[in-house]
C-alpha cells in the first residue's frame, strides 16, 4: 500500500471541561502529525445532545491556544472537509445508515426502553446480539410491511449493526500489537437514532475518519474496547483498505499509582486536572486550571509529553520542537503512567528559572499593579532575579518579595522567639548608627562596613544578621540581606530597624 499522508484528529465530545488526559491525547496527535509533516484536525463529536454542555467547545479551543497546540483543520479553522462539527453533518451519515441497511449489515429495531429493561431483568448478562436479536422487535422479526407501517406511524426506532457471531476480530494497534477479540462478546450496537436523526458516536466517528482521510487514530485506552466494532464497521462500509491505523494510549493513573486519575484526585491532593479553570454552567462549581494556577504552557506540555512516552534520552526538558523531532509511537508505553503532579511543579520551576528576568518581571507586573505598587521596571527585574530560583510559580513572587516594596507590618512570632535575643535591641541600636555612617549603600560596601563592625566588636555574625533580617523583612526569609538593603535604600532600612525596635520592646 502506498504511504498515506499523515492525517490525525482530536475528536472531543463537548461534555464539559477537557480532562488533562484528553490534553495529552491531543498533544501526542500533534507531535505525531508535525513529526511526519502531516495534519492535525479538530473535530467536535456532539452527536449526543443529552450530554452537550454549552461553552465546552470554546473552552477546548482556548485550552489549545494557550498550550500552543495548533490545528491545521477543523472547528474554528475550516478546511476541505468542513463542517467539522458532527451535529452539522447529519445528512452525510444518513446515507451510510441506508447503505448498511440495504446491504443487510444493519437492521431497524423498535424495542422500547421498557422492553429492553424487561429483557435485562429476565436474562442474565443480556445483550442485543446474534443469540437474542430474533426475540426482539426488529426488521429481522417483523415483515417489511409491518416495519414500514411502524416507521410511517412515527414509531421511535434505532438502527443496529448486525454482528456475525463467533468471528475473531483482529485489531492491529501500533502500541499494543495485535489484539484479538471474539465477536461473540460484541453486541449489536446502536448506530443511529431516528428520534433525533443522529448517528451514535461509533458510526459518526468511522464515517468522519474515512471521509476526512484520517491515517492514524491515536486516542485513549478507554476506546480500545470499541476498536473491534470499528474494524467491523470499516469492513461493512467497504473501507477496510483505507482503515486508519490504531494507537491506544496508556491510562493516566492516580499519583499513588493505582486506578485511573480522576477529578476527585485533583480535589483531594490539590492539583488541577483541567488545563484552564472551568465553571460548570449548571452547578456553578469552579474547578481549578493549570493556567490559573500559574503554570507555564511550555511546562505543562513538557510534563504531559513524558507521561506515557519516553524520548530515549537521559534528559527531561524539551522544547515543543524537540518533542516533535523525537516523538515516535513505539516509545509510548503500554502500561499506565502515574500522574506525578509534584513532578509537574518541578517542570514549572525549571521553566521559570530559564525565563529571562524581563519575562518573569512582566509576569509580576499585574500583581504589583493590583497592589498599587509603583516601582521602575528595571528594579522589578532585578528583584525577581534575586528570587527566581526559589519559586515554582509566578504567583509565589509576591510572597517572596513583598518586603522590597512594603515595610513589614508584623513580625513573625516564631522568628522573634528564635532570633530576637536579649542583646538584639542593643546591637540593632548600634547597627543604626553604623548604617547612618555609610555613604555608599551598595550591597558590597554596606556589607563590608557592617561585617567590619561585627568583627571589631566580636559579635556573633549569625545573631546580628538574624535580628537585622527580622527588622527589615519581618521574618526569616528572603535573599541576601545587603541585596535587600541596597534596593530599599538607607533611609528605609534605618526606619525599619527603628520601627522594629519600637514594636519588639
Ligand atoms: N468523541 C470521542 C471522545 O470524546 C472520540 C474518541 C476517538 O478518538 O475515537 O474522546
Explained architecture:
With 505 residues, this protein is α/β, with parallel strands linked by helices. Among the domains are: 89-249, Glutamyl-tRNA Synthetase, domain 3 (Alpha-Beta Complex); 413-503, Arc Repressor Mutant, subunit A (Orthogonal Bundle), CATH 1.10.10. Helices cover 44% and strands 11% of the residues. The chain contains 20 helices and 15 strands. It has helices at residues 20-35, 56-67, 90-102, 113-122, 144-152, 201-211, 227-236, 263-269, 297-305, 320-326, 341-353, 357-370, 377-387, 397-405, 413-419, 424-436, 443-457, 461-473, 481-488, 490-503, and strands spanning 7-10, 39-42, 73-74, 106-109, 158-161, 168-173, 177-182, 190-193, 198-199, 216-220, 245-249, 252-253, 278-279, 286-287, 337-338. It has a four-stranded antiparallel sheet with strand order 4-5-8-9. A three-stranded parallel sheet has the order 1-2-3. Strands 6-7 form a two-stranded antiparallel ribbon. Helix 1 (20-35) links the parallel strand 1 (7-10) and strand 2. Helix 1 packs across helix 10 (320-326) and helix 9 crosses helix 11. It is elongated and about 110 Å long. The model has no long low-confidence stretch (mean pLDDT 96).
Amino acid at each position: 500500500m502506498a504511504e498515506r499522508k499523515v492525517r490525525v484528529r482530536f475528536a472531543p465530545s463537548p461534555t464539559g471541561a477537557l480532562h488533562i488526559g484528553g490534553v495529552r491525547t491531543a498533544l501526542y496527535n500533534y507531535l505525531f502529525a508535525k513529526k511526519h509533516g502531516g495534519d492535525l484536525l479538530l473535530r467536535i463529536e456532539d452527536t449526543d445532545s443529552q450530554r452537550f454542555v454549552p461553552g465546552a467547545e470554546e473552552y477546548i479551543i482556548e485550552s489549545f491556544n494557550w498550550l500552543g497546540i495548533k490545528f491545521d483543520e477543523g472547528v474554528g479553522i475550516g478546511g476541505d472537509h468542513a463542517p467539522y462539527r458532527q451535529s452539522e453533518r447529519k445528512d452525510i451519515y444518513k446515507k451510510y445508515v441506508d447503505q448498511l441497511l440495504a446491504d443487510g449489515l444493519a437492521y431497524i429495531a423498535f424495542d422500547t426502553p421498557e422492553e429492553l429493561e424487561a429483557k435485562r431483568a429476565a436474562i442474565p448478562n443480556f445483550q442485543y446480539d446474534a443469540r437474542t436479536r430474533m426475540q426482539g422487535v426488529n426488521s429481522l422479526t417483523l415483515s417489511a410491511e409491518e416495519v414500514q407501517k411502524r416507521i410511517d406511524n412515527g414509531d421511535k426506532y434505532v438502527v443496529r449493526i448486525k454482528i456475525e457471531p463467533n468471528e475473531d476480530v483482529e485489531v492491529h494497534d501500533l502500541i499494543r500489537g495485535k489484539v484479538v477479540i471474539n465477536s461473540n462478546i460484541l453486541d449489536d450496537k446502536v448506530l443511529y437514532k431516528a428520534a433525533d436523526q443522529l448517528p451514535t458516536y461509533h458510526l459518526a466517528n468511522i464515517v468522519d475518519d474515512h471521509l476526512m482521510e484520517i491515517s492514524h487514530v491515536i486516542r485513549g485506552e478507554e476506546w480500545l474496547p470499541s476498536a473491534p466494532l470499528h474494524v467491523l464497521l470499516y469492513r461493512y462500509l467497504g473501507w477496510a483498505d483505507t482503515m486508519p491505523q490504531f494507537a491506544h494510549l496508556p491510562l493516566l493513573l492516580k499519583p499513588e499509582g493505582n486506578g485511573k486519575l480522576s477529578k476527585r484526585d485533583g480535589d483531594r491532593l490539590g492539583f488541577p486536572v483541567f488545563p484552564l479553570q472551568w465553571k460548570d454552567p449548571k452547578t456553578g462549581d469552579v474547578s481549578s486550571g493549570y493556567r490559573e494556577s500559574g503554570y507555564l504552557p511550555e511546562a505543562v506540555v513538557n510534563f504531559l509529553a513524558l507521561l506515557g512516552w519516553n524520548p530515549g534520552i537521559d534528559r527531561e526538558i524539551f522544547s515543543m520542537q524537540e518533542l516533535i523531532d523525537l516523538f515516535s509511537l513505539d516509545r509510548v508505553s503500554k502500561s499506565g503512567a502515574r500522574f506525578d503532579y509534584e513532578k509537574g511543579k518541578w517542570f514549572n520551576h525549571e521553566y521559570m528559572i530559564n525565563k529571562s528576568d524581563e519575562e518573569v518581571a512582566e509576569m509580576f507586573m499585574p500583581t504589583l499593579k493590583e497592589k498599587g505598587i509603583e516601582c521602575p521596571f528595571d528594579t522589578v527585574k532585578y528583584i525577581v532575579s534575586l528570587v527566581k530560583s526559589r519559586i515554582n510559580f509566578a504567583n509565589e513572587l509576591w510572597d517572596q518579595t513583598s518586603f522590597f516594596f512594603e515595610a513589614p507590618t508584623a513580625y513573625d512570632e516564631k522568628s522573634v522567639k528564635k532570633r530576637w535575643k536579649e542583646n538584639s535591641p542593643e546591637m540593632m541600636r548600634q547597627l543604626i548608627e553604623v548604617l547612618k555612617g555609610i555613604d555608599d549603600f551598595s550591597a558590597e560596601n554596606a556589607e563590608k562596613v557592617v561585617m567590619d563592625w561585627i568583627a571589631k566588636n566580636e559579635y556573633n555574625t549569625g545573631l546580628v544578621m538574624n535580628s537585622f533580617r527580622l527588622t527589615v523583612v519581618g521574618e526569616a526569609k528572603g535573599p541576601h540581606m545587603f541585596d535587600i538593603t541596597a534596593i530599599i535604600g538607607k533611609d528605609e532600612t534605618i526606619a525599619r530597624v527603628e520601627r522594629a525596635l519600637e514594636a519588639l520592646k
